[in-house]
Amino acid sequence: MIIEEVMNREMDEKEKWLFDHTPSQVTKVKKISDLKGPKDEMAITEGLLYIVGEDGIKVEQIAMALDIDYDKASSILKDIQKKYAKEEYGIELVDYGGYYKFLTKKEIHPYAQRLLDLTKTNSLSQSALETLAIIAYKQPVTRIEIEDLRGVGSDMMLRKLLARDLIREAGRSEAPGRPILYEVTETFMDSFKLESLSDLPELPEHTSDEESESLFSE
Amino acid sequence: MPFLASTEQFEGPLDLMLHLIRENKLDIFDLDMSILCDEYLAYLKHMEDLRLEVESEYLVELATLIEYKSKRLLPKKDDGLEGKYEEDPRDALVRRLLEYQKYKEVSDILYEAYEDRSLQMAKPMSEEKELASDQDDEYYDGNIQDLYKAMNRVLRRLQLQKPIATRYTQKEISIDDRLLVIRAKLKDLPDIFTFEDLVDDCKVKEEVIVTFLAVLDLIKENVLDFKVDDSDEIYLKRSIG
Fold first, then answer.
1. Which of A46, A66, A122, A129 to mutate to test the interface with B (most CBs of B within 10 A)?
2. Does residue B129 lie within any of the structural domains?
3. Cα angle at A126 between A125 and A130, to 5 degrees?
4. What are the chain A neighbours of B15 within 8 Å (beta carbons)?
């Protein structure tokens, strides 16, 4: 449409130059407005997801790129998620820590191992797991609180986890000495397959009749 | 001496105590501190026999256990205060053990998810492009060495421009005076400009140096941000706000 309007008029020298030199802009506008049907929105979103790869993309970013509202973008993503959950697809769309991304399904892994030399890397020690668990459930939390709970010094461990981008500093506590607070990152959410912190497994409760009795016995 | 070497790795004193409680089938809710203390001590001794380093955290907890045990051996003095204002150390220990056990158990569940996730793979971003929302911020993040290098370059150029025959005249140039000139210049300059834009009116090295010092002042006052590119060009940018 834009092209036609311009063509139907006599162009002066300047307009002509502009027209010749901005074809990409004209076509870009045209294409986007032409492509927006319900099916296309899904296709575009899929394409964007493919481009961002492991970095993932937020609902807000899809909404911004497609110029649609948040709920719409969210439902498109959910549709794609459903589509790829089917057995016939080898990849799936996950949402960890607010970022949507395509991952190969874990059923692919044995075959990938035949194809590639996949040596196990980045395993986490038991003490790293404990420290992460404490931070995830209690965040934001100070080093002292973590150490009290674990009964061991955790300075080195916190540094390692910071370096692996599994935790980050989250300001300072108002307690004396204003100690640094820690919280888990999106990388943590991704590594542990969590959509949000409310997806964490419930902490096991250890109760005993005797314990509750002793509360009243004195 | 029986060979008791345990290959198990303990994450700390609490972990060890939980292990001992399990091994000796103690009831954690009615903990026999005396047995726990003996077992704990035996284990640490054994570690020493094996010439393993016993970390200080283990010793701290040992001291607590022994203190508790020795108190029990002394005749109890009933002053009517005991136990009322202080939490029984046994209860405190049990509470810590239970709390610790919760996180230890849940970390096993988390580990399964972690293992699962490591079987799934993603592709890197198609192109190393910044996403549209975050731009321009990290651009001005040079360090002081960059500034130093860039300053050297300006001085070198000045050297080349200088006529070969020179006379020496002493002239005092204060930073404050130069700051006034620079502030006036800033009004006419675009948002982003080079250090050289600021020294185009300088005739002697001293003026350039004073200008540089004045710029350092402005950077410190957050009036300007700076960046140095590969060819040692200093770019300056007016800070926002």
1. A129
2. no
3. 120
4. 151
